[in-house]
């Protein structure tokens, strides 16, 4: 899978927000296992997004191990927390 992931740096910590795809979700724990465009994966905290909207295959914008938004088109039903990728 390839796509041009948006990359931007946080002005506070210089960490980057990257697009990741959800491979597995534990909504009760608020954690998703995600992979980036390079195939690297890890657990992502869902505390800042609605965990019930995060499904396998959804695209998240992740910053410092935390999902900060669903990528545009990242989940069914469009919502105000989606950002254009």
Characterise the protein shown here:
- It is a single chain.
- The protein is built from no helices and seven strands.
- By secondary structure, it is mostly beta strands.
- Strands 1, 2, 3, 4, 5, 6 and 7 form a seven-stranded mixed beta sheet that branches.
- The protein is globular and about 30 Å long.
- The C terminus is likely disordered.
The percent range for strand residues is 35-45%
* Uncertain ranges: 76-85
Mean pLDDT: 79
**Overall strand count:** 7
Q: Which oligomerization state do the chains in this entry correspond to?
A: single chain
Radius of gyration: 12 Å
Q: Kindly state the percentage of residues in helix.
A: under 10%
Labels describing this entry:
44% strand; seven-stranded mixed beta sheet; 85 residues; mainly beta
